[in-house]
Specification:
The protein is an all-alpha fold and 815 residues long. Helices cover 70% and strands 2% of the residues.
């Protein structure tokens, strides 16, 4: 080809390869890089020369193509000329046919135009009738919606609005298409459509606002209703508990009668008229209202259900559920607030009643409202509430320093727990708090009782109580079962005890009842041993300590000590009643309480009282024993009626017994007399041993023997104090004089040396100490052995008894 030889241009140093330039031009690419390269090398003329050469080569190629296809162009032009001739012929034929068709179809078109116009008029008339019917239906729905709104029937109004939206807005075509299209159910008027589009959202917003206001009013009202409802429900629980207690008391009485006499059992069947009641003892009507036996409580959930239903209709169910839950949660949080200005003792009932009413309402809503609130949400609220109540109780209990306050709050909390447990709520954490503060309550109760007992004991005048009326006897004696006989005494009645006994019994009984009340309904069924433990502490530590302090500091005379001793005996019977009473209140059989009974808990005070009484009596006896100084130990004769001191002691003892037997029981008086007689015996022996008696003769011993016979006669006269035979009673009191009697018998014996015989000594002289016998035997003198009398009677024969005593003395020294 011609271009083959011109593939390159320029000289040897500036040749430009045209192939890349040609490719770039054919592909429509940018020639800028080639231009920049040419200018960069400083040889743009070479590029221009190459471009001119490329242009000439392309022109030559075009000429070659035209030359090759020239004949084809000529033949195509000839074909176009013949086709133009045929087109003109066809045009003339078509014009003629059109003229003929216009002439023939003119009348027919006139008829068709008339038909179309008539048909359009008929369609317009039908559309107008249909639009009129739609307008009538639309306006009727609007009228009904307005009527329902005016009557506050919001749900029916919303149903009308929904029908308007569904029938006239959602399926309606555009206004322009509605005039000529089929548009079934559409709004016939753009004005009406704009009215509906504007008013339907406004009506829904109005309904939402109105029902929201009603629901807000219900939220405010339900708080007051919840508090009243909680108080009534807890009141029902309290009444039910009281009925249970009464029934339990009757049952215990029947069991006691059955235990005492099977034939005297009395059976009774009591029927209670229990109507259909809801949880917590309140009856329910069909509309969600909860009624008590006295009337409607105002527990009306209708506004809530209405609001829930309306929001469901509005398609806002989930939002209302969340709104309801959050508001109730806020209300519950508000109920948890404990005012620092009001003591918790005054506000605790309102606090717990508000929470109880809240969850009673929530339980009713959970069971009747469908899906408004779930069980999990209610449990979540309850867990929050129980944690807060536990925290409040822990805080308030830690601050309280009065046992009665703790008891009042505990009783109400236990009633609260019973009430809500009936609705299925778990109250174990609250009961755990009560159990945790059991020790603190009893410590406070012990502290209160310690003060009360101290006041009661310090106020005692050590005088026997005088009861003028039967109710006083019942209140001070029968109520504590401290009577010694079931026969009603004659009035006025002088009791053997002083006012300390019934006062202390009342305090202890109150302690038992308060302790049982605190332990009852606290989650622990068998609590008798807990009550018994604290009762033992009250008796052993508090009452025994107070009486012991009284004995040690305030009792100064025999009459006072005697009265305290009489009180101790009565308190011993009262202690038996205390444990029986605790068992009775704790609901366990009395035989179990009697089985676990220990020794007398006031033993220290009782022993101290008797020891003090004996000490005072011994002191008095010691005063009388000073009269032994008037005895003539070397007299020529003796008084058969006894020495002066013995008669004085007998007179005092007889006076003492006549007074003591009116207030002291037999066993106590017996112990006291035994101690007094033992002391007299010791003092008689002590007189023989004393330094004031240098020597004595047989007449002096015979005088002491006469004294002992007086004391033994007195002991025999008191034999009726023995619970066994009179003989054994006299023997027991005589044994108190055994040491003095054996000493006198030894000194008056014809064979005193037989004392050294172990058999005889064990049988007749087992109370004597050989050292004392030695000291006393050395002081024995014969009647003729007077001071300075030995000079005239040196040749007289020695008294055989004196000789026997000398032998005894010698053998005792050798032993």
């Amino acid at each position: 080809m011609r271009s083959t030889g011109n593939a390159k241009a320029g000289g040897d140093g500036g040749k430009v390869d045209l192939h890349p330039v040609s490719s770039a031009i054919c592909n429509g690419e940018d020639l800028g890089p080639f231009v920049r390269k040419a200018f960069a090398t400083g040889k743009p003329e070479t590029l221009l020369s190459a471009l001119r050469h490329f242009t000439r080569a392309k022109e030559l190629e075009i000429e070659d193509v035209c030359r090759d296809h020239y004949q084809d162009f000529i033949r195509a032009v000839d074909d176009l000329r013949s086709l133009l001739s045929d087109a003109d012929s066809l045009k003339s034929s078509l014009s003629d046919s059109n003229i003929l068709l216009q002439a023939v179809g003119g009348p027919l078109l006139s008829s068709l135009d008339a038909y179309v116009e008539a048909r359009s008029q008929a369609r317009n008339i039908s559309l107008a009738l249909r639009s009129a019917r739609l307008c009538v239906g639309l306006l009727d729905l609007c009228r009904r919606a307005n009527a329902y709104l005016s009557k506050d029937e919001l749900y029916l109004a919303l149903r009308c609005v929904d029908n308007l939206e569904r029938d006239f807005l959602l399926d309606s075509p555009d206004c322009e298409e509605g005039e000529g299209g089929n548009g079934a159910g559409g709004v016939p008027s753009p004005t009406l459509r704009r009215m509906l589009e504007r008013q339907i959202p406004a009506i829904r917003a109005h309904v939402e606002r109105k029902i929201g206001k009603e629901f807000g009013d219900w939220l405010v009202q339900i708080r007051v209703v919840s508090r009243n409802l909680g108080q009534v429900a807890i009141g029902y629980a309290s009444a039910a508990r009281q009925r249970e207690e009464e029934l339990r008391i009757k049952q215990r009485q029947a069991e006691e009668q059955s235990r005492l006499s099977v034939r005297d059992c009395i059976y009774a069947l009591e029927e209670e008229d229990d109507g259909p009641t809801g949880a917590g003892g309140a009856s329910l009507d069909g509309s969600g209202r909860e009624n008590s036996g006295d009337g409607i409580l105002g527990f009306d959930l209708t506004p809530l259900y209405r609001a829930y239903h309306i929001h469901q209709t509005l398609g806002l169910e989930d939002r209302f559920k969340l709104y309801y839950f959050e508001n109730r949660k806020l209300q519950l949080t508000s109920d948890f607030q404990v005012s620092s200005m009001t003591p918790f003792l005054e506000s605790h009932q309102t606090f717990f009643a508000q929470i109880a009413g809240f969850f009673i309402v929530e339980d009713r809503i959970l069971r009747t409202s469908g899906r408004l609130i779930s069980k999990m949400e209610v449990e979540s609220l309850w867990e929050t509430a129980i944690a807060k109540m536990v925290s409040v109780l822990e805080d308030q209990f830690s601050r309280m320093q009065t046992a009665n306050h703790l008891l009042l709050i505990k009783d109400y909390v236990s009633l609260f727990g019973v009430t809500l447990r009936h609705y299925g709520y778990t109250v174990d954490p609250l009961l755990d708090v009560l159990s945790k503060h059991r020790d603190k309550y009893h410590e406070l109760l012990l502290s209160d009782c310690r003060k009360q007992i101290a006041e009661a004991v310090s106020a005692d005048k050590f005088e026997q109580m005088l009861m003028k009326k039967e109710y006083e006897y019942s209140m001070n004696v029968l109520s504590f079962q401290i009577q010694t006989s079931d026969i009603m005494p004659a009035f006025p009645f002088v009791a053997p005890f002083s006012s300390t006994v019934p006062d202390s019994c009342r305090i202890v009984r109150s302690f038992i009842e308060d302790s049982v009340s605190f332990m009852s309904y606290g989650g622990q069924l068998d609590f008798y041993f807990v009550v018994k433990k604290y009762l033992d502490r009250l008796l052993n530590e508090v009452l025994d300590g107070a009486l012991l302090k009284l004995v040690e500091s305030s009792v100064h005379g025999v009459s006072q000590a005697m009265q305290v001793a009489a009180n101790m005996v009565v308190l011993e019977r009262a202690c038996d009643f205390f444990f029986r009473h605790a068992a009775h209140l704790s609901g366990i059989p009395l035989r179990m309480a009697e089985r676990g009974r220990r020794e007398f808990p006031l033993k220290r005070a009782r022993d101290a009282t008797e020891e003090l009484l004996l000490g005072l009596l011994r002191t008095k006896i010691d005063d009388f024993m000073l009269l032994t100084e008037n005895i003539n130990w070397m007299g020529d004769d003796y008084s058969v009626s006894g020495n002066e001191y013995a008669n004085e002691v007998i007179i005092y003892l007889e006076t003492l017994v006549s007074t003591a037997q009116q207030i002291l029981p037999v066993q106590v008086l017996k112990r006291v007399l035994h101690g007094v007689l033992s002391h007299i015996s010791e003092r008689i022996v002590g007189v023989f041993l004393s330094d004031s008696v240098k020597r004595f003769n047989e007449n002096a011993v015979s005088g002491i023997d006469a004294d002992l016979k007086l004391f033994e006669s007195f002991a025999d006269n008191q034999a009726h104090f023995s619970t066994n035979s009179e003989e054994s009673g006299a023997k027991e009191l005589r044994e108190a004089l055994a040491e003095a009697r054996q000493l006198v018998n030894l000194l008056l014996s014809n064979h005193p040396e037989m004392f050294m015989n172990p058999v005889i000594r064990e049988k007749s002289y087992n109370k004597l100490d050989h050292k004392k016998v030695l000291s006393i035997s050395e002081k024995f003198r014969d009647s003729t052995d007077r001071l300075f009398g030995s000079f005239g009677s040196r040749a007289a024969k020695q008294n055989p008894k004196k000789k026997a005593l000398d032998i005894l003395t010698r053998r005792l020294r050798e032993a």
